[in-house]
Amino acid sequence: MREGPLWVRHLPLQLASNTGPLNEQLGRGSGSALQGQTGWLGRTLRRALLALLCLILLGGARDPILVPEVSQHEIQVRQGFTGTELLLYGAILTPEGSRAGQDYDIVVVLKGPTNSIVLREKQRIAGIWVNADSAEFRSAPAFFAVASSKPIDKIVDQKTAAIYELGLPWLQLSPIGAFDPAEQRRFSAGLVERRLREGLYKEDPHGVNVSEQVLYQARISLPSSVQTGTYTAETFAISKGRVVASAVARVEVRKVGFERLVAQFADNNGFLYGLLAVLVSVGMGFVAGRLFALV
């Protein structure tokens, strides 16, 4: 009967003595958990601050926008048309609509309808000019003009100029068929040279005036032989050799009046148009001969 109480008395002591290591382990566990939570909270705060800083920096360095306009969205070709001049102008603004206020260069590219064209080289054989070599290009623009605030090679590198076709050396004519690259360059240069003489291709390295880094304007003249169709006026804003903004405006060139009726008849009835042209030529020649005979 005495051993029972004695064992009861020793049991709490033994349990009390065994709770010491348990308390130590609990203390260590709670401390490490607290340190882990503190480290996780610190890392989360650092990431949030870094993300906020990136947003601030990106918000302050947003690219500008271009607001382009042209003086004429439609050019009417009538009898006696001698050409016209287009004024391409606009503004460089921030996305909020305020002044951009940075040093931007502006390049304006006015491009006419693209057509497939065959170039033939003539050679003189035995005193007679005959067709020799030829080359076909899929996308030769009927009109191509580039105006810039500085020479293109001082604004962008050749790779960027080739991507955006910022000049005659980088005009992409898309040759058809496989032939020697040297011959391709020779025929391309011949096409560009011919259309330069005709006033259909042109470059002006100082043709864009930029006022207070907000307003810009460029003047491009169209000759009387300009082809009808849709023309695209694409404007590029360039900063530190990189195109940061671009915008497109369109101009429609179309014939009106009697010239329009003749052009439509020729397009829709090619055979009859050719036959009438021959008959009119023969008739005028006959009448002219009779008049000279009477004199």
Overview of this structure, please?
By secondary structure, the chain is an alpha+beta fold. It is built from 5 helices and 13 strands. It has 2 domains: 43 residues; 191 residues, Macroglobulin (MG2) domain (Immunoglobulin-like, Sandwich). 40% of the residues lie in helices and 34% in strands. A 6-stranded mixed sheet has the order 2-13-12-4-7-9.
* Number of helical regions: 5
CATH homologous group name of the largest domain: Macroglobulin (MG2) domain
Assembly type of the chains comes to: single chain
Broad structural category: alpha+beta
**What is the ordering of alpha helices and beta strands?**
HEEEEEEEHEHEEEEEHH
How many DSSP-defined strands?
13
Main β-sheet: number of strands, strand sense, barrel status? 6 strands, mixed
Give the spatial strand order of the biggest sheet: 2-13-12-4-7-9
Query: Unreliable stretches, pLDDT < 50, 5 or more residues?
Result: 1-30, 56-60
Shape label = elongated
Mean pLDDT across residues? 79
